[in-house]
Write a structure and sequence with these properties.
Length: about 450
């Protein structure tokens, strides 16, 4: 596909807002942050020049440093996403270039739709022409089309670069060098002894934690109990530890929720304890990387000996005997039903010998404490949700989980009371339930 022309559709005019000096949010993003990079400051300079040309005032900045646009849409980035949820605080968002905003046509389409919905203006610097691309809420087709063309170019460039990096990282893995990405827990990035590039060396603080975890598991503590102790001691999870070593803040966005820091869970612990990286092995997609002779490629000194690692795996396997493999969920209300007590998702739990089960709060599985954990019979909650959806959308067509997710359906369940009379068996207590849709055309009740 030929590269689209970067010639502006028309010269930018001062934006027409209610105030004389419209408020602008500067958006800065870079995929890889290093100590010597000047990219963020260069982006800020470009944003300032765009603002001066358009007669707007930059009042705040959303900086996502070390965040990939190919992996995270604007609505998932730690800093920008919080601003996108507060559109009333500014009139326009300014980026230094389209590829600083998105690396995907779909992300651009979603961003333009958001701007139209909230009557906000998007501004993209175009250094090649020294003329910003301005997309107003009532933008014409030419401006929208140009946005999509530039987003497509950015997406193609990102995929090309990703392919090159994948090849480069494969070569680095084979010679035991660190090529980037999440560092295995227990290690940290260090200069390579040769003076060229990077390698991984044990992280003393994390090594001590690994040893404590292994000792706790051997003493008979469950993974949930160990996770609880780590959370009580404010020990960073592997992702947060990596962020701290990179000089970035902990936390981020997960399952549509923002976290100041992430919490240990039994699943997180299981991944750490089962990873051959504890033996110093280079890991790619969960498997040990081996050289041409079949010998494991090492990332550094092992944290556990072969004997220690093997005995730990035997212990973990013995504990998991009899557990069933996880299967893809077919429950109607997964990611639709939420607990009022903690705001977390509710999950389906089967009842042995019954045709129905229950939707229950699973805060404990996330190593969190819910002060009012909710639960409700699955057939009751599903019937209520489907009925409310059909009532608010005036439709009689079949209602699937995907239909509910696409419409932004959400049912929130409050904790019930113990005891009661026979009326409890007649159906759900709807006073404990609230149902909402995010569609503009739908009403909501609570």
């Amino acid at each position: 596909m030929p590269k689209p022309s970067l010639r502006p559709v028309q010269q930018p005019l001062p934006l027409a807002f209610v105030t004389d000096r419209p408020r602008a949010l500067a958006a800065v993003r870079i995929s890889h942050l290093t100590d010597v990079t000047t990219a963020p400051e260069r982006q800020r300079n470009t944003v300032r020049m765009c603002a001066e040309q358009l007669g707007i005032t930059v009042i705040a900045e959303a900086a996502d440093l070390g965040v990939s646009a190919l992996r995270m849409s604007p609505f998932e980035r730690p800093s920008l996403s919080s601003w996108l949820r507060r559109p009333d605080e500014y009139d326009a968002i300014v980026w230094a270039h389209v590829d600083r905003a998105v690396r995907s046509v779909n992300d651009m389409r979603e961003l333009v739709a958001w701007a139209k919905k909230h009557a906000r203006t998007l501004v993209f610097g175009t250094p090649e022409d020294n003329c910003p691309l301005v997309v107003r809420p009532q933008a014409n087709d030419a401006a929208i089309r140009r946005c999509m063309e530039l987003a497509q170019v950015a997406e193609q460039e990102a995929h090309t670069l990703s392919a090159r990096l994948t090849s480069s990282h494969a070569a680095l893995r084979m010679i035991g060098r660190y090529g980037g990405g999440l560092v295995p827990f227990g290690y940290r990035k260090s200069p390579h002894p040769s003076g060229v590039g990077w390698c991984l060396t044990p992280d003393p603080d994390a090594v001590a934690i690994v040893r404590e975890i292994v000792d706790d598991v051997r003493s008979g503590l469950s993974l949930i109990a160990v996770a609880g102790r780590l959370n009580d001691a404010d020990v960073p999870v592997p992702r947060d530890r990596h962020a701290l070593l990179q000089g970035r803040p902990m936390g981020g966005r997960r399952h549509g929720r923002d976290f100041d820091r992430f919490r240990w869970t039994s699943g997180t612990l299981s991944k750490v304890l089962r990873s051959p990286s504890l033996k110093g092995h280079r890991i790619h997609k969960g498997q040990t990387v081996r050289d041409a002779s079949g010998t494991p490629v090492l990332i550094g000194p092992p944290l556990l000996t072969e004997e220690e690692f093997d005995s730990l795996q035997e212990l973990l396997r013995a504990r998991s005997n009899g557990s069933r493999p996880r299967s893809r969920t077919t429950a109607l209300l997964t990611a639709v039903a939420y607990c009022s007590g903690c705001g977390g998702r509710m999950y389906f739990a089967a009842r042995k010998g019954y045709s129905y089960g229950d939707y229950v709060c699973r805060a404990t599985a996330r190593a969190e404490k819910c002060l009012a954990p909710a639960a409700m019979r699955s057939d009751w909650l599903e019937a209520y949700t489907v009925a409310r959806y059909r009532e608010l959308t005036a439709t009689g067509s079949p209602v699937s989980r995907q239909v509910l997710l696409d419409s932004g359906a959400r049912v929130t369940v409050s904790k019930g009371h113990r005891g009661g009379n026979s009326t409890r068996l007649a159906g759900p207590d709807t006073s404990r339930l609230s149902f909402t849709l995010t569609e503009k055309s739908a009403r909501s009740d609570s």
